[in-house]
Specification:
The complex is a heterodimer of chains A (about 375) and B (about 575).
Chain A (H helix, E strand, L loop, with lengths): L1 H4 L1 H23 L3 H4 L9 E5 L10 E14 L4 E15 L5 E16 L11 H8 L6 H24 L4 E5 L3 E2 L3 H16 L3 E6 L13 H8 L13 E5 L1 H7 L3 E2 L2 E6 L8 E5 L6 H9 L12 H11 L5 H12 L6 H7 L11 H9 L2
Parallel strand pairs in A: 2-5, 5-7
Antiparallel strand pairs in A: 1-8, 2-3, 3-4, 6-9, 7-11, 8-10, 10-11
Chain B lengths: L29 H4 L2 H7 L1 E2 L13 E9 L3 E6 L11 E5 L4 E10 L6 H4 L24 E11 L11 E3 L10 E4 L2 H4 L9 E7 L2 E9 H6 L2 E4 L6 H15 L3 E6 L16 H5 L4 E5 L10 E2 L2 E2 L5 H7 L7 H16 L7 H7 L11 H11 L8 E2 L3 H6 L3 H10 L3 E5 L7 H21 L7 E6 L2 H4 L9 H7 L5 E7 L7 H4 L4 E4 L5 H7 L6 H9 L6 E5 L6 E5 L4 H8 L5 H7 L9
Parallel strand pairs in B: 11-19, 11-20, 12-17, 12-18, 13-14, 13-17, 15-16, 18-19
Antiparallel strand pairs in B: 2-3, 2-8, 3-6, 4-5, 4-8, 5-6, 6-7, 9-10, 9-22, 20-21, 21-22
The chains are: A alpha+beta (about 375), B alpha/beta (about 575).
């Protein structure tokens, strides 16, 4: 504890924190409540689409979300045995206006995930992903796993696009892709199929950190400020979708962008704007957002479609099933001839740490 | 390094001769392997084409926790308001069925309802209205007490093959839990030649619950319940079966005059009304208010002991000097140095001059005031030893009746108003019976003394004088058993409860009484919740006389039911009313 009590160290720390807070103060000072009324932010590159919820029967809402959990880490191969889950859920409303879960489809897929290109020499996507991931040393496996999950999600979305007509098809996150021809082809196929089936294809981001509006605040915060968004009953805010001009998006976006990028306030009591990528029905955003808003009336998440919450919940449940799948791996390991200490050293705990990693050993020693 | 040494399976094409790639498979081709078609075909549809399944009306939920020492925890799928504490359930484990009772229903500690309660946003879709992929986020947990494990041996072996055993293992997680059905429990509640039905099982009223009366009468038992809980009527059901099965004689101190012909309260038949006054003998202390056909009851004062008097006066706050004085005076009486031949008259006769030195004059006066009420009672007489031999008192008659396996009801008539008379008579009669039973071991048939207001005799203070504590502890081997009936079990000495092999608990309002009634019971804490939820008339029956502890709604005790349930061809009342003047013309 002596180093903490060192006066010079204490002074340095005080000075550093003081500097940080000064920057934060300056930043927020520009947007202090008293200055709010005076300053009107102008967004030259946006288009507004106020909308209302039509009284027509709701379209089915189908959404896809994925998650994964690491079971075993094979240190000598820099590979994980990983279990992926992608969930598709479909909701409708019954004649009394109550939501009904009409489909809940789950695919669990175990994969050997490695940052070694040799594993995927003939795969059209992963070698390039691994090449990019190598630039993020220490996080390679994470990136490859995320990409595999994205691929399964996209395939599930494609399956849904083919299966449904006149439905809202949503995925968690944006409708973007790496600059890889196979990914572009896949997402194009999804869009084409959706168009052919009159499906509204959307991607909704729970939180967005973009700055397309060229403001110091992130876009969703700038819009909330502009439209005086409040979740209070006393001051409900209008339902509106704001389209960011495609040229602004193209200027800043590094990936393949499918459809138009909107920020939407989907319920009068919604506490924020959500980023919504609209892949189809781009010519009729008022109609598309009106349909989407029908599923954004849940008390738990006003302004955010509840089917996505449930899809997320379903996908995340793979973590609860981890022990079950691990048991199966252990069962298969028996009699396989692979030494047991490989398995024992590779078992991954709930924090994602493998027992045999040297890092784990250091952590343990650090506690002494 | 072990993996490095292994050769991979597969064609082996594209592998390099040396280095890390040697052992690698050809290609995982992830993107090609997973197609939109395989997503559909290899995945699982969790909602069938017919939609989310409707839960069956008897489904309760699934097991989410269990411990043999604690019980079973169930996540409920039904509204908590549709399940009641005490409801019998079946947990369908992998191989075993766990017959359980609901002991508690509660919401989990971390409850997201807190975040959404009192929402002002009336126009929104309520949180509970969205059917979640993992069920409702709002659910209750039910705690179960497993009473027995039912182990079917083989599917086609039939009911007889059901093996019951105590709760010695736990069901697998996510086992289905449902309401118990009559079929599940038919074999659990099998009767025997010594059993009789006391009522319907709570939750499955059509399932009649028998108890083994041979087991019941062997060891002390207790019936506990607040005033108005149905305790007296239930005790009548027990008594009726004991008389019907002729497994024991009964001695009943009938303070309220309920047991002979008809009860004033609840209009229920008495034992004489059911079995006739030849099997059930009533003896009346008060000839002016004696039930039809009752014999006169009287005692000789000479037979009253210090203990009898102390028990009778126990609720009059006797001081230690007063208690000691009674003992000293009784000693004088037994030595033959008293001025009278019995304790009551001796106390009333003592003067300053005749009192023993060890007794204080003021104490004597205080005792006189308390004893005076026993001076001129019609059922207390004086008699010389010769007179007593020539005209024996009712105690001798009672013993004679017990030898002949009769049931005896002592009716108190107008002497019900003062509990001292009841305590006095009950103590003196029981003391004599105990004395005879222990002196003549094996000559009397099994006898049960039914003791109402038991706390008055078995409280820690009175227990030292009264005879009942000794009977509860010692008399089993002499064939004399105590049946305790009481509304304040908390006032009964804790040691008495350790002697009870069977107990029947009805609604008790004071938590102290609930604690006392359950003292010495395994999983007492789990039963507390059940007792709290008991309705009037409902009885928790537990002990050696019943297969598993059960909540029972006793059958309605009326003439018609008594006839049917007890299997009587004709009750005594019917016989009496069917006798015409013509039938008795010759008499």
């Amino acid at each position: 504890m002596t180093e903490i009590n060192d006066p010079s160290r204490s002074q340095r720390l005080e000075r550093d924190i003081g500097n940080i807070l000064a920057i934060v103060k300056e930043y927020y000072g520009q947007y202090a409540p008293e200055a709010e009324a005076e300053e009107i932010i102008s967004f030259p590159d946006v288009e507004e689409f106020p909308f209302t919820v039509p009284g027509t029967p709701a379209m089915p809402f189908v959404c896809v979300d994925g998650s994964f959990t690491d079971l075993v880490h094979l240190q000598e191969l820099d590979a994980n045995i990983t279990m992926f889950r992608v969930s598709t859920v479909e909701y409708n409303f019954d004649t009394e206006g109550k939501p009904v879960l009409t489909r809940h489809h789950v695919i669990d897929k175990a994969e050997l995930v490695s940052s070694n290109v040799s594993f995927y020499k003939d795969d059209p996507v992963l070698p390039e992903v691994i090449r990019i991931a190598k630039q993020f040393e220490g996080r390679e496996l994470d990136i490859v796993e995320s990409m595999i999950m994205y691929l399964i999600e996209q395939k599930a979305l494609f399956a849904a696009a083919r299966r449904y007509s006149n439905a809202i098809l949503a995925r968690d996150g944006s409708l973007t892709a790496f600059f890889l021809p196979e990914l572009k082809t896949l997402i194009d196929e999804i869009v084409t199929t959706c168009e052919a089936h009159s499906n509204i294809l959307i991607g909704i981001s729970k939180d967005s950190g973009t700055h397309y509006l060229d403001q110091p605040l992130v876009d969703e915060a700038a819009l909330a400020k502009q439209y005086a968004v409040s979740s209070s009953m006393e001051s409900p805010c209008q339902t509106i979708a704001v389209r960011i001009a495609p040229r602004s998006v193209r200027r800043l976006h590094k990936f393949i962008m499918i459809g138009d990028l909107f920020f939407a306030h989907l319920h009068p009591f919604a506490e924020k704007f959500f980023r919504v990528d609209l892949g189809t029905w781009k010519d009729d955003p008022v109609q598309a957002f009106g349909e989407l808003a029908k599923y954004c009336t849940w008390e738990a998440t006003p302004g955010f479609p509840f089917p996505l919450v449930e899809a997320h919940k379903s996908a995340k449940a793979i973590r609860d099933a981890k022990d079950f799948y691990l048991d199966q791996v252990i069962e298969g390991w028996r009699g396989s001839g692979i030494p047991q200490d490989v398995l024992l050293g590779g078992l991954i705990d709930k924090y994602g740490v493998a027992a045999g990693k040297f890092h784990t050993k250091i952590d343990m020693i650090s506690k002494i | 390094m072990h993996l490095m040494a292994k050769k991979a399976t597969g064609s082996g094409a594209n592998v390099q001769p040396n280095g890390a790639d040697e052992f690698l498979p050809d290609d995982l081709k992830l993107v090609k392997d997973i197609s939109e078609s395989t997503i559909e075909s290899e995945g699982v549809e969790l909602v069938p084409a017919s939609g989310i399944r409707e839960f069956a009306t008897d489904e309760v939920g699934e097991v989410v926790g269990a411990a043999v020492t604690v019980g079973i925890t169930v996540k409920m799928i039904r509204e908590p308001e549709t399940l009641r504490v005490g409801t019998p359930l079946i947990v369908e484990g992998g191989m075993l069925h766990f017959y359980s009772l609901t002991t508690d229903i509660a919401y989990p500690a971390s409850n997201i309802a807190v975040a959404f309660a009192n929402s002002p946003m009336a126009s929104l879709l309520p949180v509970k209205d969205v059917p979640g992929v993992r069920g409702s986020p709002f659910y209750a947990l039910a705690s179960l007490n497993c009473l027995a494990i039912l182990e079917p041996t083989t599917a086609d072996a039939g009911d007889e093959a059901v093996i019951q055993r105590p709760f010695d293992t736990i069901p697998r997680l996510l086992s289905k839990v449902r309401l118990a059905r009559q079929d599940d429990l038919r074999m659990v509640f099998r009767g025997s030649e010594n059993s009789g039905v006391i009522g319907g099982l709570n939750g499955i009223e059509e399932l009649q619950v028998p108890i083994d009366f041979l087991e019941l009468i062997k060891v002390p038992f207790g019936v506990f319940g607040s005033t108005g809980s149905g305790k007296s009527v239930f005790t009548k059901i027990l008594s009726s079966w004991i008389v019907k099965l002729q497994l024991a004689s009964l001695v009943i101190f009938d303070v309220m005059g309920e047991y002979t012909w008809r009860s004033h309260e609840g209009d229920t038949p008495g034992l004489a009304a059911l079995f006739g006054d030849r099997q059930v003998i009533t003896m009346a202390l008060d000839q002016e208010k004696a039930p039809m056909g009752a014999e006169e009851f009287f005692l000789y004062k000479e037979n009253v002991s210090a203990g009898d008097l102390l028990t009778a006066l126990s609720d009059q706050d006797l001081t230690t000097p007063q208690i000691n004085s009674i003992d000293i005076l009784y000693e004088e009486l037994t030595k033959g140095t008293a001025t009278k031949d019995n304790l009551i008259d001796y106390i009333l006769d003592i003067t300053e001059k005749t009192k023993p030195d060890a007794v204080n004059a003021k104490t004597v006066n205080a005792l006189k005031n308390r004893v005076r009420k026993f001076a001129n009672l019609p059922f207390l007489r004086t008699g010389t030893p010769e007179e007593q031999k020539e005209t024996p008192d009712s105690l001798k008659r009672i013993l004679e009746l017990l030898r002949n396996k009769k049931t005896i009801i002592l009716n108190f008539g107008r002497f019900t108003d003062d509990k001292a008379y009841y305590m006095f008579i009950a103590n003196i009669v029981t003391r004599r019976i105990r004395h005879e039973f222990s002196k003549n071991e094996g000559t009397y048939p099994q006898t049960v003394i039914l003791l109402e207001e038991a706390h008055k005799f078995l409280s820690p203070e009175v227990g030292q004088f009264s005879i009942f504590g000794k009977i509860a502890r010692e008399m089993r081997k002499y064939g004399l058993t105590l049946g305790i009936v009481d509304q304040r079990p908390s006032q009964i000495h804790a040691e008495v409860f350790s002697q009870l092999a069977n107990r029947f608990i009805l609604r008790l309002s004071d938590p102290k009484d609930v604690d006392a009634a359950l003292s010495g019971v395994g999983e007492a804490s789990q039963w507390k919740g059940i007792l709290r939820g008991l309705q009037n008339r409902q009885v928790v029956a537990m002990g050696t006389c019943i297969t598993v502890p059960s909540i029972v709604t006793p059958w309605t005790f009326n003439d018609a039911n008594a006839k049917t349930m007890l299997g009587l061809s004709k009750i005594a009342k019917e016989v009496k009313t069917s006798i015409t003047d013509e039938d008795v013309a010759d008499i």
